[in-house]
């Protein structure tokens, strides 16, 4: 895997450690994948159950945010070493975009 | 090196520059192109001041005045100040981090040519039916009503040159993140590199809003859209928001690299480590971050309401805190230093009070209720010229003198340089100080003339005289460049004798591969550390080995040329010209064809072999200085 490269020619170096780490990574990925499917089902249920739109819209948005987090951190390995700069820039970009949209929602279109 | 010593033909030099991907040559291209645009913006400014020197003047017509004013602002910001700063970043930053080039040399060349063709397109408007005339801010209601093709030139020209700037910014970010020499940790980077980094991040986040809004403007004007057309259900205020979401970070894109240049100059000529290095870094990052939260201070009088105005007023005032930290750090750097008043140092010292004056008026304007009085008067004009000329242009002039030896291997005359400084400094304050009072007395900005007997005559005359002083200063600088180049007295690695950072450890100008061996960086001010231990060379971090270099390429020029041609098609399509759409498609075909060519053709570059590097040993090249 890309994120446990080593600069040694010995393919068996740290073999057990890497094996264990990969197994653990796999377990977490399966767990999050299950959760994500569950979230999707829940959102459909929320709409189908005909709750007030003041509940459904924020609720689905919240689930969406959590899913993006899962995607970035568990599937794209953003928490691992060597991803500091991309995550800094992604968060800055998200902040700027969020402030912009917030301002547009509140002072132009309100 | 024998290849350098050979006299090259003129045509081959031109071809060399048209195809170069070397950051040092691209820097020179930026310097030349930015310098020419600076002179054009300067001529426009002289015509503005000539018109306003006396009341009821008719030196230029009202329409021409609007065009001059718009082109002055647009040229100075987009085509002079920013490219000149990008030029210094190209020239110096890779050397400061101990890299052999930027991360994407091809993209670097592409960025330059896009900027160049965008600027050329914009300025061709003078010959093709009239320049843009809605101000550099080009507010939508005004610019949609503007007749002729002026605004189309603005939109398409800035779009093309904006792509170039965006590419430059991304390139610098990747370079600084990935290509630092061994031991060059983030907290050992020279401050100019840090400010380049933060300014590039601002470019990355600020240019997309500009691109988006210019696209909308282009579509409104050229292809029948109605984004900003209130009569058709659009919203004209959205342009203002987008423009300033870009526009305020833009002013920090200009001032942060200027801060960086001054930080280098202060510590070099005070012969002291920069005071409060880590707080300087922190302040730079904080300014960059806050820069995105304040754009509506340009729109206090639009009617956003008291809550929005209050929030943006407070956010704006907050920026004064990190800026203040920087000012104090510079003062404490000079304090107790062993100061040498070279020309760059004169600019640096003059910068502090001039910039502080601009900061103070900025805070005054940040008080939203008070801004109802200042807004759209000459007070604003005074404010932004104090920060932009007293900050950015001073830094550019200081940087030209400071880095000239590193870029060209000769030293600009200190004597002429001091005359330039005196004329420019006096002229600057004469021109703009009085404008504060003109503004407070009620003179609106962007007017082409004024009536006599309203108390505005003397102030305007003084202002125009000051402008002439600045012009003399610039002419002296040009003379200086010519004289220095004719004399051609070569200088060594460290012509100022007090160089602190890596770039001063290698020859002036550096060999095309910069460092024969990548240096090992053992602390802040790496070269100074070595000098303090009695060495004249840097510690190498690697044995001498083959160096991989990219090949030059003409493709960036062709890609940019294609967009330049396509822009004419997009513009004349409005007039129902039969050839317009074919030209648009043909231009785009050239661009995408050249991009496809670049993608398909494998170009692996070449290697400089170890043996050839060894041969250079008797001369001082690379790390062995
Ligand atoms: C202490 C820092 C600063 C503060 C608090 C500040 C505040 C302001 C405010 C409130 C305005 C809008 C005034 C109005 O139109 O009514 C303004 C305009 C402007 N400022 Fe600043 N500013 C600061 C620093 C700078 C810097 C560093 C630059 C550029 C290098 C700059 C460039 C400009 C420009 C170009 C405008 C006028 C834009 C236009 O309307 O054409 N400012 N400033
Ligand atoms: Cu601003």
From TrEMBL, chain A:
It is a multi-pass membrane protein. InterPro entries: Cyt_c_oxidase_su4_bacillaceae, Cyt_c_oxidase_su4_prok. Pfam families: COX4_pro (PF03626). The keyword Transit peptide does not apply. One of its GO terms (cellular component) is plasma membrane. It is found in: Cell membrane. The chain crosses the membrane at residues 28-49, 55-76, 88-109. Keywords: Cell membrane, Membrane, Transmembrane, Transmembrane helix. This is Cytochrome c oxidase subunit IVB.
TrEMBL record, chain B:
This is Cytochrome c oxidase subunit 1. It is a multi-pass membrane protein. The chain crosses the membrane at residues 27-48, 68-92, 104-128, 153-179, 191-217, 237-262, 274-295, 307-332, 344-364, 384-404, 416-438, 458-483, 554-572, 578-597. It comes from the Bacteria. It catalyses: 4 Fe(II)-[cytochrome c] + O2 + 8 H(+)(in) = 4 Fe(III)-[cytochrome c] + 2 H2O + 4 H(+)(out). CDD domains: Ubiquinol_Oxidase_I (cd01662). Belongs to the heme-copper respiratory oxidase family. Cytochrome c oxidase is the component of the respiratory chain that catalyzes the reduction of oxygen to water. Subunits 1-3 form the functional core of the enzyme complex. CO I is the catalytic subunit of the enzyme. Electrons originating in cytochrome c are transferred via the copper A center of subunit 2 and heme A of subunit 1 to the bimetallic center formed by heme A3 and copper B. It is found in: Cell membrane. Keywords: Cell membrane, Copper, Electron transport, Heme, Iron, Membrane, Metal-binding, Respiratory chain, Translocase, Transmembrane, Transmembrane helix, Transport. Residues 9-522 form the Cytochrome oxidase subunit I profile domain. PANTHER family: CYTOCHROME C OXIDASE SUBUNIT 1 (PTHR10422). GO terms for biological process: electron transport coupled proton transport; oxidative phosphorylation; respiratory electron transport chain. It comes from Pseudobacillus wudalianchiensis. The lineage of its organism: Bacteria, Bacillati, Bacillota, Bacilli, Bacillales. Its EC number is 7.1.1.9. InterPro entries: Cyt_c_oxase-like_su1_dom, Cyt_c_oxase-like_su1_sf, Cyt_C_Oxase_1, Cyt_c_Oxase_su1_BS, Cyt_c_oxidase_su1_bac. GO terms for molecular function: cytochrome-c oxidase activity; heme binding; metal ion binding. Pathway: Energy metabolism; oxidative phosphorylation.
